[in-house]
Design brief:
The protein has 486 residues and is an alpha/beta fold. Among the domains are: 167 residues, Ribonuclease Inhibitor (Leucine-rich repeat, LRR (right-handed beta-alpha superhelix), Alpha-Beta Horseshoe), CATH 3.80.10; 77 residues, no CATH class. It contains eight helices and 24 strands. Strand 23 and strand 24 form a beta hairpin. Helix 5 packs antiparallel against helix 8. The longest helix has 33 residues. The chain is elongated and about 115 Å long. The chain starts with a helix and ends with a helix. It holds the Pfam family LRR_8.
């Protein structure tokens, strides 16, 4: 096409997109507007021409674009197929967005003629499902690739091999069952977003060669296993999100070598305990999320190397106690979140109560037991001292101080047992029909007014019998109390 020829003539070399062989900027702006596709709007920007064709009802890609185009937006149209060289030759194009279309097939070589393309967005094309291994051929300068919500089942192993400059891959909301093998060896990749797919495991070879990876998101998948050494090549990793998966256990060396890690999110899994070996190399860790698990035990020294930790989330677990030895030695912590745990507030948590009072960085530690302090916040629990200086648990303290002297509990117990036995012996045996309908008789007690005279006599006998039983019970209680005084 004529515009392609003009682009090749005017924009070679590529280092001067705004001024070409002395062409004034005003002429470049006019050229941008004159070559704008009919259904689109164009505007001149600092680095070239910006073409906006979003929500234009397009069913196919326009045949011509301004050769000065630096950005093209084709979001929310009805595009279904991209043929070979779908956009012609656009030597200045750096950004291309095709989100929210109906793309089902991309011809290999569709993006040829775009030598400077740095950002490609294909997100939310739910019918795409499959990509050919040569789809991104000739995009050697691509830095950002967005494949989110395309419902891809897999990514061909060589698909990304053509993208040596790739820095950021966004591929969440797909149907992957494993970490795409196409990621291996991407030496310049720094960010990988793989959340909300169906990934079941992180194998020891899944992330091989990702030596510059700084952020990895695997949250909201179905990860049940993380193999030992899975992050061995990711020494530059700073943020690792594994929350909301199905992890019930982790190998001791799961995070070995991640000495630059600053954020680790393991919340929303099925972990039952916390091991010291997990965090032995994480000296730079600042945020640790272990919330919404089933943790009942934290090993001593589990957090001892995390000297720079700003926040630790242990809320929403099954912890009844937490030892200070888990943080020793010389531990400093910004915030500690412990709410929604069934805490047993005895002397083992006295250190935590003192720390809550001194630092003010812990709150909402509700006691579930012992019964004397159940429902109280730990900050309100009083730990007294015995004569030898030892801490006295709230349960023992409340028992001894609230009931001075000999306890009358055995007397009450004896009387109640004797009364219960006497009541059983004296209780008349009613027929099955009378027992079954006792509730009905109580509800409809007004019907006694219509009973015949022999019913009244029967009721009088019953009252007399009950009165005699009460006298016997009173006499028995008097005898028991007399024996206790003696």
């Amino acid at each position: 096409p004529l515009t392609t020829v003009l682009c090749l003539f005017f924009f070679w070399p590529l280092s001067r997109p705004a001024v070409v062989f002395g062409l004034p900027c005003t002429l470049a702006t006019e050229a941008c507007l004159q070559a704008c596709p009919a259904a689109c709007t164009c505007s001149s920007v600092e680095r070239g021409c910006s073409v906006h064709c979003d929500r234009a009802g397009l069913l196919r890609v326009p045949t011509e674009f301004p050769c000065e185009a630096a950005s093209i937006d084709l979001d929310r149209n009805g595009l279904r197929i991209l043929g070979e060289r779908a956009f012609g030759t656009l030597p200045s194009l750096r950004r291309l967005s095709l989100r929210h279309n109906n793309l089902s097939f991309i011809t290999p070589g569709a993006f040829k003629g775009l030598p400077r393309l740095a950002e490609l967005r294909l997100a939310h094309n739910g019918e795409l499902r499959y990509l050919h291994a040569r789809t991104f051929a000739a995009l050697g300068r691509l830095r950002r690739l967005d494949l989110a919500a395309c419902r891809l089942f897999s990514v061909p192993e060589r698909l990304l091999a053509e993208l040596p400059a790739l820095r950021e891959l966004t591929a969440f909301d797909n149907l992957f069952r494993r970490v795409p093998a196409a990621l291996r060896g991407l030496a310049n990749l720094t960010h990988a977003h793989l959340e909300r797919s169906r990934i079941e495991a992180v194998a020891s070879s899944s992330l091989r060669g990702l030596r510059r990876l700084r952020s990895l998101s695997l949250q909201a998948n179905r990860v049940r296993a993380v193999h030992a050494g899975a992050f061995g090549d990711c020494g530059a990793l700073e943020h690792l999100l594994l929350n909301d998966n199905l992890l019930a256990a982790l190998p001791a060396a799961a995070f070995r070598g991640l000495r630059r890690l600053r954020t680790l999110n393991l919340g929303g899994n099925e972990l039952g305990h916390v091991l010291r070996a997990w965090f032995s190399d994480l000296e730079e860790l600042e945020l640790l999320y272990l919330d919404r698990n089933s943790i009942t035990f934290v090993e001593e020294g589990a957090f001892q190397n995390l000297s720079g930790l700003l926040a630790l989330h242990l809320n929403g677990n099954r912890l009844t106690m937490l030892s200070w030895a888990a943080f020793q030695p010389g531990f400093f912590l910004g915030r500690l979140y412990l709410f929604r745990n069934p805490w047993h507030c005895d002397c083992h948590l006295e250190w935590l109560r003192d720390w809550m009072e001194g630092s003010g960085r812990v709150a909402d530690v509700a006691c579930a037991s012992p019964g004397s302090v159940a429902g109280l916040d730990l900050s309100r629990v009083v730990f007294e001292r015995s004569s030898d200086g030892l801490c006295v648990d709230p349960e023992e303290l409340n028992f001894t101080t609230s009931r001075p002297g000999p306890s009358p509990e055995p007397v009450a117990t004896t009387v109640s047992r004797f009364s219960s036995l006497l009541s059983k012996l004296l209780a008349p045996r009613a027929p099955v029909e009378e027992i079954a309908n006792s509730t009905w008789e109580l509800v409809n007690i007004s019907l006694f007014d219509s009973l015949p005279s022999h019913g009244v006599v029967f009721l009088g006998c019953k009252v007399t019998f009950l009165f005699a039983s009460c006298l016997l019970l009173t006499l028995a209680q008097y005898v028991v109390f007399s024996l206790q005084r003696d």
